[in-house]
Amino acid sequence: MIAELGLAALWLAAGLCVLQLIAGAAGARSDVQGALSALVRPAAVVQGVLLLVAFAYLLRVFAVTDLSVALVAANSHADKPLIYRISGAWGNHEGSMLLWVTILGLCSALVALFEQRGEQRFIKAAMAAQGFVALGFYAFLLLSSNPFERLDPAAATGAGLNPLLQDIGLALHPPTLYVGYVGLSVAFSFVVAGLLTRQAGPDLARAMRPWVLAAWIALTLGIAAGSYWAYYELGWGGWWFWDPVENASLMPWLAATALLHSASVLAARDALRTWTIMLGVVAFSMSMVGTFLVRSGILTSVHAFAVDPERGAFILGLLTLYIGGAFVLFALRAGALAEGKRFATVSREGALVVNNVMLSGILAVVLLGTLYPLLAEALGTRVSIGPPYYNPVTAVFAVPMLLVLAVGPLLRWKRDNLRRIAVPLVLLGAILAASITIVVVFTGAGVLATMGLALAALLALASWLPLAGRRITRVPLPLWGSMLAHFGIAVSLAGMASESAFSTERLVAMRAGDTVSVGPFEARLEAVEPVAGPNWTALEARVAASSNGTGATLRPQARTFTEPQQSTSEAALLTRRDGQLYAILGDAAGDDRWQLRLWWKPFVTLIWFGAILIALGGLLSLIGHLRNGVRRWKIRDAMARRRAERATA
Fold first, then answer.
1. The pTM is what?
2. What is the number of helices (H) and of strands (E) in the chain?
3. Per-residue model confidence as pLDDT tens digits over 362-378
4. DSSP code, position 321
5. SS3 for 194-232, per residue?
6. Integer Cα distance of 534 and 648 in angstroms
């Protein structure tokens, strides 16, 4: 009965989505503002509630392991811990798509509830566009990916969840990414509304900026969580592999970063109108491309949902419809868009344009590297593209971008002169030169790692230079957020470069009692013993690691799951302020010896700590912009009341 109620709620929500689309389209016409258009907001709110009900029912059938539901039988098992049964609800294709649609519906409801003060034609056009986007996903979900499909008779036992997904990372990583993807759909809807109503000025940027910021924060946290999850779960010792599905989440983040800066310029200075419109379309395009790659079945990846090609073709059709239609609309209306205010090359706007071009270049590099092997394979040739391509080619764009990022916040809006900031420029140049010299002389790191460490030092200092000459108590919250986010980039960059330049690895075959050195640690294998978990058995090594008189015990495991049958390596991590010791237990090597792989990774945790700082900076900016928006609308309302009072006096 629960499954039927969930499916009914989903169908009702789809019907309200149709109403939202029709009512929003009616309200977007200047000559139609009647009872029909007034239904757009209630339809969106009730739709969001129904989707929450449907998703709650899906969680329920997974929590109780209802094996009469096909999705549960294929992706769960009663022996799994409760947290993995619940998170397993979206660890599959159908459940993850329902989560996507639920977040999409909740975003529409939030737009209906909180976007009250804007120009009504624009808001209703945006809600119609949001309904149009959602309708395609409803059709996909209900016609080809029903999460509540019944089995008759019910399965005797569940097939279980992929052991690599039986981790707390599944509870955090996909939902956070989906919030980011769907947040970009709201920005896309605002862009479409701006094109339809010919409103592509600062008000558009102010309306979409909170949504872009929220999506960007979620993408930052989702990518960082996914990186750390893969780092400790897959057992290969790395934090980024340039896997196509990893790239599928990175590409929307790159586009959203460019969109965020462009929208800020449009909101503050009424410039970069065309850039903002184009990037709004591109950002959502990248989230759709990522959805297609993950769910089309054309990728072989631990991250991908292997589904049949027909469903992949459905998503490709949606991508073509949404993105192709948006670009056609952009082409038709671009000539009618006002140019916006001009600015000099040497200005803060100019610096932001340079950074947007560099981000677009990185995006193009990643997109080409992701799609080219797929195209080559379709033509009968297998091509592998990895770090030897991505690292140096993206650096061509990343290095100048970071240099401009260090200087850009010091420039004035509209027009400036480099002589005015000569002292900070000399200071930053000295920091960069000194950092390169120190790294080259004392470490012997490679070229990319050297540039990474030097740029990290430069950006760490430059991030706080906008405080010069300001009273700390008068610094606006968005500026604090911007500085903290830029500092977080420096922290992450330092972690990436340090891990690349200074990691040490030991692969040894050890008996109990043997000792090996790795980095600053002495690691002693004490024993390898069998252990059992709730739905797995394992061989567990006890490794005593000591450094500078302090020690700890690492317990890497080689696990064997029964439902489904699969073996995994569970890494053991020992975290210190200056890095991590990473241990993996391998196979028996004969003569009572065991293979043990150990890494010492200096400052690797800075990668994820920096990501948290970046997201926190985005949150501060979001709060600041929301405050400013409320203050701005209060002022406008007060002025409108005064005008009305004068008119009636």
1. 0.94
2. 18, 10
3. 999 999 999 998 888 87
4. I
5. HHHHCCCCHHHHHHHHHHHHHHHHHHHHHHHHHHHHHHH
6. 75
